[in-house]
Amino acid sequence: MKIVFATQNEGKKREIKRIFQEFDRIELFFLDDFDIKIEPPLENGKGFEENAILKARYYKQFFRDFSVVSEDSGLCIDALYGAPGIFSGRFEGLRNDNEKCDKILSLIKDVPVEKRVASFVCVVALLGNETAPKIFTGEVRGKISFSKRGENGFGYDPIFIPQGDKRTFAEMGGEKKDDFSHRRKALNKLKEYLVGRFNRV
């Protein structure tokens, strides 16, 4: 089975490769494996699932002989009423990860530790030849740190501490982060679904 993961984010690609490295029932591709220039779609969905689905349908038109996997994910902070949420990748018009982390920390600088609750959410959509995509969701609860910590990871990893640990995602190595990761949870559900499909053939 040939699957195109519709992302060019290097951090996400590393995580996906780790998670699927021993799964030899699929051929794994990313957008930059192909010599074509594809402009990203407008992500105007009202939630993670809508955005994941619209991206899967958009990229499927370019890869008709492949199954396409897309995902939408983000950080949802209780004290900010769920922000940055689906706007995590372009929060406040910022593109630099450090700037986005700094912005979050400044917005909740006076919020006490017990109220710095947050979630990382990931929704994965798989679209093959069927009309309706299959949806897989992962979530991890945790808290926002008071400062950026760690050199690993990407995005908001330096300020997110998952439940059950005292380190930020950026202080963990990749495989340790996978033990908690919202993306790992969603992609594991995808793997379980694919294994079931292969076993039914």
Describe the structure.
The chain has 201 residues and is an alpha/beta fold. It contains 5 helices and 6 strands. A 6-stranded mixed beta sheet has the order 2-1-3-4-5-6. Helix 1 packs across helix 5.
Outline, from the CA principal axes? globular
Q: What pattern of helices and strands is seen along the backbone?
A: EHEHEHEEEHH
What CATH calls the topology is Maf protein
Strand segment tally: 6
The order of strands across the largest sheet is 2-1-3-4-5-6
β-sheet strand percentage: 15-25%
Q: Characteristics of this structure?
A:
6-stranded mixed sheet, Maf protein, 6 strands, 201 residues, alpha/beta
Any chance you could write out the topology, listing elements then pairs?
Elements: E1 2-5, H1 10-20, E2 27-30, H2 48-60, E3 67-77, H3 97-107, E4 117-127, E5 134-144, E6 160-162, H4 174-178, H5 182-200
Parallel strand pairs: 1-2, 1-3
Antiparallel strand pairs: 3-4, 4-5, 5-6
Helix pairs in contact: 1-5
Quick overview:
Helix content is 29%, strand content 22%. It has helices spanning 10-20, 48-60, 97-107, 174-178, 182-200, and strands at 2-5, 27-30, 67-77, 117-127, 134-144, 160-162.
